[in-house]
Write a structure and sequence with these properties.
The protein is of the alpha+beta class. The protein folds into two domains: 200 residues, no CATH class; 130 residues, no CATH class. Strands 1, 2, 4, 5, 6, 7, 8, 9, 10, 12 and 13 form an eleven-stranded mixed beta sheet that branches. The protein has a two-stranded antiparallel sheet with strand order 3-11. Helix 2 crosses helix 8.
Length: 390
């Protein structure tokens, strides 16, 4: 009997919604748009975090930079000798890298000096690097190759720090599992990079410190800071937290950009929460007069809210999934990927966790259903005669 009663209330809720097709259609469209915005921001942010963490898995546990006036400066190689004396440090390796603006294509490139490529991170698409002899060889990321329309054996002109023009011959093109940080990367031999960027032989861009026990990274970082006051030790965990904060912030910025649509939905929910229309109040009064209980009316309005929420939630989730994972987040990608003009082509891996769905539900469905039930409950506990009289 109870099941039959609930089924009849559900049928009545469906017929009640069908009587106001136009109004409910507008509500569902606005509702779906908001679910789409929230879902896209959450899915895109989570997937980009995974992309960044995929690359950061291979990053060093501790990097040491030199600071002056709050700015990053070249670090003397003698710092490496001092850091090696700290107990628990196994090796200290200097790194050489920098940025270069390419006027013809209005793009920034990241240049890295290396005497060997990390095979676990980079994968050569064509050509090679260290198997060839000669100066001014380089390998480039797929994004640089596409942006400059270059292939192997082509030349890339580069203006050095002293105004001299250098011609880099492309020996190979590479890609990576995560293209966020490697799409605009150019790798050349360390000696060539030092010559082009004007880095003295006794200086480096920063130092990579390998630690015997990962649990001691924070302790060693503190000792380095005490030994070298002008240094800035950067732990891998700090970099990961920074990337997570950046993508979370950008996800929030996306929501802010679509603030108009969210505001419209909020006004709609507020309008429902502050009271019912005269027709809705009259309907509740009639139902009370013919014998409906307060709990029956609450259940009726719950079903109405749940039906509308479901008709908006699932299309919104599906549309967001297609937008992010099939079309690469066309609407959001320029903001979420970063400042570089050479935006990486990212094949985002679908990753929807129960936590994401719970967050979306609490941001959309729960407020709407609550806004539907509160005024309905107030009307349901009122005397039917008073409701009918207005």
């Amino acid at each position: 009997m109870n099941i039959e009663k609930h089924t009849l209330i559900l049928e009545f809720a469906l017929s009640s919604l069908l009587r106001q097709k136009l109004k409910n259609t507008v509500i569902i469209l606005a509702y779906t748009l908001n679910v789409f915005i929230f879902s896209s921001a959450i899915f895109f942010s989570a997937s980009l975090k995974d992309e960044a963490l995929e690359l950061l898995n291979y990053s060093p546990e501790l990097i040491v930079q030199r600071m002056r006036g709050g700015r990053h400066e070249l670090v003397p190689l003698q710092y490496a000798e001092k850091i090696k004396q700290i107990r628990g440090v196994t090796t200290v390796t200097p790194r050489y890298w920098g940025y270069h603006y390419d006027p013809p294509v209005n793009s920034n490139y990241t240049f890295l000096g290396a005497d060997q490529l990390p095979p676990e991170v980079l994968k050569m698409v064509e050509g090679s690097f260290f198997e060839q002899e000669g100066k001014k060889l380089c390998v480039i990321g797929q994004g640089v190759a596409d942006n400059r329309f270059v292939e192997t054996e082509d030349l890339i002109p580069l203006l050095g720090f002293d105004g001299k023009l250098h011609a880099l011959r492309v020996a190979g093109i590479f890609t990576a599992k995560s293209t966020i940080l490697t799409n605009d990367l150019v790798i050349l031999k360390t000696a060539d990079l030092k010559e082009i960027f004007g880095i003295p032989d006794d200086m480096a861009t920063d130092l990579v410190v390998k630690v015997r026990n990962v649990k001691e990274v924070s302790t060693i970082a503190r000792k380095i800071q005490e030994m070298l006051p002008d240094s800035r030790p950067i732990e891998k965990s700090q970099i990961i937290k920074t990337y997570e904060a950046i993508f979370s912030w950008r996800g929030g910025l996306l929501v802010a950009i679509f603030f108009g649509a969210i505001t419209a939905f909020a006004i709609l929910a507020w309008d429902k929460a502050t009271g019912l229309s005269g027709q809705e109040r009259k309907e509740i009064g009639i139902l009370k007069a013919i014998g409906w209980d307060t709990s029956d009316i609450i259940e009726l309005k719950f079903w109405e809210g749940l039906i509308i929420s479901s008709m908006a939630f699932f299309p919104g989730i599906i549309a967001a999934h297609a937008h992010i994972y099939l079309w690469g987040g066309l609407v959001f990608s320029p903001l979420m990927k970063g400042w570089s003009i050479i935006f990486p082509e990212i094949n985002l891996v679908p990753r929807i966790e129960p936590y994401h769905l719970i967050v979306i539900i609490f941001l959309t469905i729960i407020p709407y259903i609550t806004a539907t039930l509160i005024p309905s409950w107030k009307a349901a506990i009122t005397d039917p005669d008073m409701i009918m009289r207005g």
